[in-house]
Amino acid sequence: MQEFVVRIPAQLGPLVTSFRRARRMSQAELARMLGTTQQAVSRLERDPSAVSVARLLKTLAALGVDLVLRETDGARAGSNKTDRDSRLAW
C-alpha cells in the first residue's frame, strides 16, 4: 500500500485526479457516485481548498482511499512549541 504525504491543499487535487484515473473513472462518473455535478468534481481537482472537509472525505471514500493522520517525526520527538506553532499558522 502506497502512502502520500500532503502538506498543502494544492497537493490534494492531483492526487484525487490520479486516484480517479487509476480506477478508470471519469469526472462525470465520480460526480454521479457523489450526487453532484462533473463541474464540482473538476473544481475539487483544480482547487481542493475550496471544498469542505466533508466533501473531500466523501470523495476519497468513493475512490476507495483512506485519509490517515499521523504525527511527524518532529512532533513525536517533542519539537519545540515555537517551531510547531509557526508551521500551523493560518
Would you write up a description of this structure?
The chain contains six helices and no strands. By secondary structure, the chain is mainly α. α2 (27-34) crosses α3 (38-46). The protein is globular. It starts with 11 loop residues before the first helix and ends with a helix. The mean pLDDT is 88.
Outline the fold blueprint.
Layout: H1 12-22, H2 27-34, H3 38-46, H4 53-62, H5 73-76, H6 81-87
Helix pairs in contact: 2-3
| Helix proportion | 40-55%
As a whole number of angstroms, the C-alpha radius of gyration is 15 Å
Envelope shape:
globular
SSE topology string: HHHHHH
End-to-end C-alpha gap: 32 Å
**How many helices?**
6
Strand segment count: 0
What portion of the residues fall into strands of 2 or more residues?
A: under 5%
Main sheet summary? none
Question: What features would you highlight for this structure?
Answer:
single chain; about 90 residues; mainly alpha; 6 helices; globular
Please provide a brief summary of the model.
The protein is an all-alpha fold and 90 residues long. The chain is built from 6 helices and no strands. The longest helix has 11 residues, at 12-22.
